[in-house]
Amino acid sequence: MSFTDVKQVVGASWTMAGMVASQCGLPLLTVFTNNEFFMKTFMPDVVCLGDILRAKDYHLEFMGGAETEFAGKGLFYQSHGFANVQGAKELLQSNPDADASYVNSWGLYDDTLYTLILDRIRTLQKSSKPWGMFSINIGTHQPEGHMSRECQGIQYGDGSDKLLSAAQCTDYLVGKMYRMLKEEGILDDTVVIFASDHLSPVKVKPYNTLEKAERHNFMMLTGSGVVPGVNERKGTSLDIASTLLNYLGYGSHPIGLGRDMNGEEPTLREHFISDALLNEKILSWRSIIDMTFSGYPALTGSLRVETEKQEVVTGNTSLRYPILLSYTPEGKVEGVWYPTETISEQDVFSGAFYLTKMISNNQLFLWVDRCRNISTLATGLQKYRESNCFYNGSLAAEGSSGFIADSGVTVNLIFDNQSGASTARANVLRENLFSKNMAQWDSLNLKIKEGLQNSLIMVRAGGTDAIVGSSYVQGAEFKEPGLYLTRVSYTLDQEYVLRNKEKAHYSSVLYSVETLGALPVCDNKQGPVQLEALIKKYPMDEKLTPLMYVIVGNVDEQCGKGFTNLPQDIRLSELDGLPAGSPYIALFDVGLEVKYEKSGARDKAIAVSVLVAD
User: Fold this and answer.
1) Neighbour order of strands in the sheet with 311-314
2) Which of 95-104, 266-275, 432-441 has the lowest mean pLDDT?
3) What residues does 549 pair with on adjacent strands?
4) What is the pLDDT of residue 209?
5) Beta bridge mates, 187
6) pTM value?
7) What is the dihedral sign for C-alpha 504, 506, 507, 511?
8) Apex 489 CA angle, 102 and 467, nearest 5
9) Which three-class secondary structure state does DSSP give residue 513?
10) CA 312, 313, 319 angle in degrees (round to 5)?
């Protein structure tokens, strides 16, 4: 049975969100990064498909090619009915015959994963208990996929697009496993569902081709009791669990916002005249979804911020910090934001982004983070810089703030959001947060002849007085004043990527950032700077290919009297005469042609996201 009109909604557009949507019928609107997962519980008050099946005495397992720690996958499944949750590490440990050297930068190749899944299903089938096996592959992960060695000779079209060939490979492997399930009689009493976790993102090469047609999530069922056909009802991935539950013989029942697409109740998409209006409505439900299902504690008069475990503790509940939580005057937590130092376009993972873009003037909040970030709201905290501080209150009224000592601190919470409220005050704080805590972002498209497929390189420069003080080039950070010359290189060699996995920007591409030195542009003892000669002094790894060179940082105070030896072999129009402390970025290609140049005020940060594509 093929479902042909399953669309993607907000809160279901990335892997972890797709899993929550398909299991629980709810969008995942809590903000956190995949690699910096601070949550200690994962939507504990939701009843998901796994919880229902466990109550029906099902034994449930999850097997995935990537690590279970990524984005909190393991915690999610363990919290919702799954008895056995295994990722790459666990699968290799529990299957000694598996080739531990045959892995990619994400984890297990699909041919390994499906072999292990099939073996496990054969074992589960011998049990007297009903069972469920859920899995996710990584063979089709952007930007170029991961071709399994079993797929030698398989390609899509002329083979020029590696991602589409990887999809062809996974299609073959899934089909092979399905045929074996059928031939061995396992499908006689088993339902199989095939589904995509989300649509392909914009940073993949086939995206422009895909956008020419109306796009849908894949969803298809087969096996025991499934009558072949086509279901054209308007649905979303929120409807998967409810639809599957009916195929398992438990009737047509809602799960979260999801509805059985073979049932009589209309789906969420069938309630709205357009998908755009539906997404707006889902976003408006963010607070109520978080308040109802995320297990947030009720706030009373005070709470503790504990330094040793880096937790905010109230009652029997603890939450990791840095954290920004919003709450009502009655003490009900409405939402939680997990700010991080991760560099992202428009600084979307920062607390400043949340306060600037996401909440109302009178919304009460508690922000626990580095003092330099919070000092925009309370200037007296600036002196503590890299230590941790807190701010409590709203943007419109005076709040309380303080330094968090090694022994921790008790915060007496504010529950009055009306006394002394001022729209003017809120506007000033929003503007300060936007201009001081967030970089001024630009974007640049960099086209090269090699086969890189829509990868992002992040570059940021902070002025000496900026809240965002450090400068950054894709993983390399510069905290000391000065202008630094860096070389950004890359390789598509998968063995090299795997050996240097911690440096990889994308799963199939490794970017290397080398610091070639601080530019002595204001040192009277130095002669004129020759960039080409400086670059030649630093030979590069033969496995790497140079992509671009970046000058990043800020003008050292010793340059207050002017530049004495600017680079002679490249024209940098904004550097000459730039005041001391100013942030500066210049990007140029391997032929020393300038592609981008920008400077800013000394209390600001500037940044550019570079989209690399062939």
Assistant:
1) 317-320, 311-314, 302-306, 409-412
2) 95-104
3) 487, 588
4) 62
5) none
6) 0.81
7) negative
8) 110
9) strand
10) 50
